[in-house]
């Protein structure tokens, strides 16, 4: 990795595999053909941004649903 480049790591140890699969699921849902070689550099920034943005949106939605169900149980 070049100098000054950030290596993204999952905050929760062991979550990398799940996030990796999640990225491909979201790309497929959006109709974006994910790369076979795991190198996303050949995709447009717009497509990569759409995948990442939708991943964040879905993770926030899941957490909000979790919070709502906890509030209902109390």
Describe the structure.
The protein is mainly α and 74 residues long. The protein has one domain (16-73). It contains two helices and no strands. The N and C termini lie far apart (48 Å).
What order do the helices and strands come in, and which of them pair?
Layout: H1 16-29, H2 45-73
Helix pairs in contact: 1-2
GO biological process, one term: sporulation resulting in formation of a cellular spore
Keywords: DNA-binding, Sporulation
Protein name: Small acid-soluble spore protein alpha/beta type
Choose one word for the global shape: globular
Q: Round the mean pLDDT to the nearest integer and report it.
A: 90
Structural class from helices and strands? mainly alpha
What is the count of distinct domains? 1
| Oligomer type | single chain
Features:
58% helix, 74 residues, mainly alpha, globular
Question: Would you summarize the structure shown here?
Answer:
This is Small acid-soluble spore protein alpha/beta type. The chain is an all-alpha fold.
